[in-house]
Amino acid sequence: MKTFFSLVLLIFFIVGCASKNAPLADLSLPQDANFYIEQNKDMELSPEALKELKENYLKTWFSPWTTMEVNKNTDEVFWVAPSLLKSPGYGENLKKNTLEYTSKIYEDMDIPNYPSVSQKAIITTDTSVRAVPTEKPRYSTPKGYPFDRWQNSLIFQGTPVLITHYDLSKQWAHIQSSFVYGWVKVTDIAKIHQKDIDYLLSIKNYVVPDKDKIPLYDSKGNFLTNARVGEIFALKPSEKAPSKNSIASKAKKNISEKMTKEVYTYKKNIDGYVVLIPVSIEGLSFSPFPKKMDMSAMASIINSMIGERYGWGGSLENRDCSAFTRDSFANFGILLPRNSAAQVKYAGNMIDLSKMDAKQKEQYIIDHATPFATILWLKGHIMLYIGTYKGRAMAAHNAWSITTSTLFSKQENILGGVVITTLWVGKEKNGSLFKSKMLIDRILGMSDLYDFASKEQESESVK
Question: For a surface tag, which of 279, 334, 417, 463 has the fewest beta carbons within 10 Å of its beta carbon?
Fold first, then answer.
């Protein structure tokens, strides 16, 4: 009997090891978002709705230059401060930080003198927004990678901001933007004159890149920046043509037809102010902003990011789960907040799924969610529902890992980037008695952003 029991344990151990080393089954599913488009369904927004989305997006986007006031609530602005004085965490060497080390960072923030300035500015290069004025990471445990708790977000060049404070070294500026606030390096930001603000606010037309990381160069071939999915670019207005009846007008028309489209990028001059740099996008893959909101357009956006690596808070210029959804919907004129919990509440139509069991949740999502437009939220994670495959709900998301458990072990299964999976990803590696919760178990709510976009236009027309 003892021998038999030992044999059973050995079999379980061998099977468990084989399962542990096997790749996740979901990663063999089609990773092309177009595969999941249901031909008999689509979204359709009126031109009026698109116009409304664009106006609301730009109003919020430019608010640091127009209506935003300095947030004087230091507890909210410097939320990280208490941890610096009692929870040092671990550094890049995976050793525990000293309280002296984090207390010095606290002192450098110069909180007693906040706010020390209110200056309109613009980001001049893609850069990190930090919770503290340092590039050094802070992990909760020695195995905390990639979750640097001092990393807030990646912010794109061209983003309007309000400078509210400087650290004692003057190497870091504290900023407020339309979606995030925190510390950025002074080298990556430029002040802006009111005349330049007025000019940029007068521009009516914008474009968005259809692909991620399109390199842009100046007229001499020097690299300037990468155009990123989710980034909007102001389209340089063409010069006004002379009178229609003049010979000069006809010549001007012939010239303008040959003119290339130009967008603005930004550099910092020696005085610390921004210089607008026009860049040709002729022959590059850009679309007018906002894009028409349909399944094919969203599928194309997802495909442009499939396989890209995960980056907590935008670290290493990568995306995390909420940056993936925020950058996806930005193309359609929907400016989502920074974190997942705020994103699901943004449209004001979140449906609470927390009381349902896993099967009920999945069926409700399939029956009521709009493919390529509904976001699914669980604590600490957000996903985009894209339809069904073989009766399962499918989601596109940017995820670091999925945890599974058996009688003998708990395993972290690395996803590591943008993937398309079921809501049961990793189920085959879970035990029957000892198991971890699946994504579907942890989903708490969902929000339909197509429904929001449709009703937003209707509510405006009633006013």
Answer: 463
